[in-house]
Structure formats: structure tokens, C-alpha cells
Amino acid sequence: MKAAVLIIDDDATLRKALEDRFAYWGHVVDTAADGDEALGMAARETFDLILLDLSMPGLSGLEVLERLRAAGCRADIVVLTAHGSVRNAVEALKAGADDFLTKPSDFELLKRVVDRSLEHRRLRRANQALAARDDGAVIGESAVMANLLATAARAAKSDATVVLRGESGTGKGMLAEYVHRASPRARGPFVYVNCVAISDELIESTLFGHERGAFTGAVRRKDGRLEAAGGGTAFLDEIGDISANLQTKLLHFLETGQFERVGGNQTVRVDCRIIAATNRDLHQEIAEGRFREDLYYRLNVISLDVPPLRERAGDIVLLAGVFLKRFGAELKRGTLRFAGKTLEIMNEYAWPGNVRQLKNAVERMVVLTPSDVLSPGLLPPEILSGAPMGARTDPAGLHFKEAVNVFKRRFLGEALSRAGGNQTRAAKDLGLQRSYLNKLLKELGVRAGPDRRDG
């Protein structure tokens, strides 16, 4: 990672030696002979790494460190301290330093400390970029998510192709972006291609580009998405759905790093990393002749399994809180909170649509709630019925009585949602006595929470 480095040391000989060494390692280097000069430079420019001598005339290194942090400096700061001055190093770490080295120190040790600091910085930037998106798919406290993110961070360090496997809505796209942001290619583009959303006729030219006149409507040459990803990462979603012809061309690109645009004969060479994702069982697709085995092994250098939300114990409430904060701010709803029963129902639900379904459910509740407390009645009907969406929508094969109950659960759940969880209002809309509605809800096992009356 090429970094902007500031070296602060009053020793001109050491300062020059460090400047030459950092330049040799490929970094852009500035130097300052004292604290005042350094503070002025830090106010005008942005640095990734600052190497700071603690023992200097005038402003001490500790004072410089404190002023840098007070001014909002986000650079990683490594302090240099005299041999045996561990106490000074501890004080510096408390004041906001990221690491320390004792002087004299050999360049090999210095490089290890610098590389470690820059690696941590790259990962922080990756997490900050995802937090800014606030999608929540790669947020979690569960052990399975911690293990997944740790593996993804290690995978990010190389250029190896990655296959992400998991159900729809689990956040494979967000994990792909996490790998990109944590990689040496983070400053390059991240290009997303949904292979299943583009017709068979257009997907090849979308990926590889086309020459003028290649087909009807091709009035000019157009670069493909792989060219747009040069120096960065191309994320190919739903890779299991591409045609046999496109599989062959993609395999050739993975083997050679080059291709020809549609309708052209000029070889194009592109340097980009490929991350692919699928919700299909590619082994089964290979066995049934729909996916090339050689392409699978080219893609599947590293595979990451993204868990469904139902296997992320403890993350549901955490994610719901993230989405509540996000949508509450977007819709200017002030401070909102979930009722305890609402959280209980959400935590027990299987979430077949995974993180995407949870996000949509929270957005719906924020839009519909008439108060600051999100009651259970605001939940979508399929969640109130206590069963996954797909399990309650198709009565085929059910006994007649159960099929009728399936309909009743959905019907009453939708009525409660329209009434914002208010049983009295729902009963009035349905032409029922409130006591009878309450009896039906109990008989059918529809969770409605406490009645919220008007006024």
C-alpha cells in the first residue's frame, strides 16, 4: 500500500535515513524537524502514517501527539522512544499513538511495524466504507460472522478469485465489497454485475464490451464492465446462471487476463480481480452439465459461505437496531424503539429472505408507526403468523381446515398491519366485535401484542 508519510525528528541524519528508506519502500515522504513545523504540515495536508520522535526540543513528541489528535488527525502514529523509556511509550499509547519503536531500531523491524499499521488502516477504511453504506449485512456479533469476516480479511490480501455462496438476501454483495475495500486494490473501482438481470443477448457485451457495428444498435465502440474494473475488482453476482458460451469466454479471461470485445479481433488485456457469487449448488450444476467444471475450479480458489440470518444467533436484534436508526433518521421520525414483544417475535422468526427481508420489515414499521414505539402489529403478516413467508402462502396439499386457517392468519395479520396494531380499529374495519377478533387471534396463534387504542 503506497502511503503518505510524515517523519518528525530533530536528528537530521536519522531523518534523512528514514526519508530515504520510506521512499525506497514506495511511499510519498515529507519531513519536519520540530513539532511546530509538523503541526503546520498536518493542518495543510493529509497523511496516512506519522513517525514521531518523542524526545525533541521545544514541543515534546507527546505534546505534538496530543495536539494532532485534538485537531482530528486520523493518521496512524508510530512513536520513536529511547531505549528503556517504556513509560513514555505507554503514555503515548494512552494519548492516541497506534504503535511504538525504541531507538535505535533496525529497518526490518521498522518495516514490520509500518506494514502492520498500514494494514490495520486499510481494514479500518474498509469497515468505515461499509458502515457509511449502513446496509448491515456484514455487521454482527455472532461467532459465525466473526469467523467469516476474519477469513474474508485474510482473503483480501491476495488477488485470488473468490466464490461467495449463500441464500438470496444474505449480503453476498456487501461481503464482496468488504473484501475489495480491505484489499490492496481498495483505491481501484468496485464494479458490480448482476448476471441474471441482463439478457443472454446483452450479458456478453456488458462484460467484455463491443465494437461499432457488432450488432444492431451498436453505433459506437463500448468498453465492458471488466475493463471498467481495471486495477480494481469485478463482482459477478449469480454466476451460476450464465450461458455455456459465456462460461467459455470467462474461463479464457481468467486463464490469460485477456479477451476480445464482441465483434472485434483486437486483444484487450485487463488487470482486475474477480469475485463471484451464487445461491446455486455449483457441484450439482456441474453434475447436470450446466456449469463447466474447469471454470468452477478457476473461480473457486477461495470460497466463503455466507450464513443465513437464522444461523446468526444474536444478530437479528442488533441488525434490527441498525436499520431502525437508519430509517428513523432518513424519515426524520425522531427517537424510535421496538416494543419488547416485537423484538421477541423478530428474534423467533426464521427470516427466509434473510437480511434483505429484515431490512424491508423494519423500514415498513418505521413508515407505518403512529408512535415512537414499534408494536408487533406493524410487522408484516407472514411474520405475525409465526411462520416463514413461503410456508404460509401455498395451501396446496393441505387439509381443507388448515388451508382455511392459513388464509385466516394472513387476512387477520394484514388487517392488523393496516390498523397499526390497533385491535379495536382492525375489528371495526373487518366488521367484527373486538372480543371476537381477539378470540380468533388466540385460536389461530397470530401474535398481536397488547391492544393500542385510539386517543
Structure description:
With 455 residues, the chain is of the alpha/beta class. It folds into 3 domains: 120 residues, 3-Layer(aba) Sandwich (Rossmann fold), CATH 3.40.50.2300; 163 residues, 3-Layer(aba) Sandwich (Rossmann fold), CATH 3.40.50; 134 residues, Helicase, Ruva Protein, domain 3 (Orthogonal Bundle), CATH 1.10.8. Helix content is 48%, strand content 13%. It is built from 20 helices and 14 strands. The strands form 4 sheets. The chain has a 5-stranded parallel beta sheet, with helices on both faces. The longest helix is centred in the N-terminal third of the chain and has 27 residues. About 3% of the residues have low confidence.
SSE blueprint:
Elements: E1 4-8, H1 12-24, E2 28-32, H2 35-44, E3 49-53, H3 61-70, E4 76-82, H4 86-94, E5 99-103, H5 107-133, H6 143-156, E6 162-165, H7 172-181, E7 190-194, H8 200-208, H9 225-228, E8 233-237, H10 244-256, E9 258-260, E10 267-269, E11 273-278, H11 282-287, H12 293-299, E12 302-305, H13 315-330, E13 337-338, H14 340-348, H15 354-368, E14 373-374, H16 381-384, H17 389-393, H18 400-418, H19 423-430, H20 434-444
Parallel strand pairs: 1-2, 1-3, 3-4, 4-5, 6-11, 6-12, 7-8, 8-11, 13-14
Antiparallel strand pairs: 9-10
Helix pairs in contact: 2-3, 5-7, 6-7, 10-12, 13-15, 18-19, 19-20
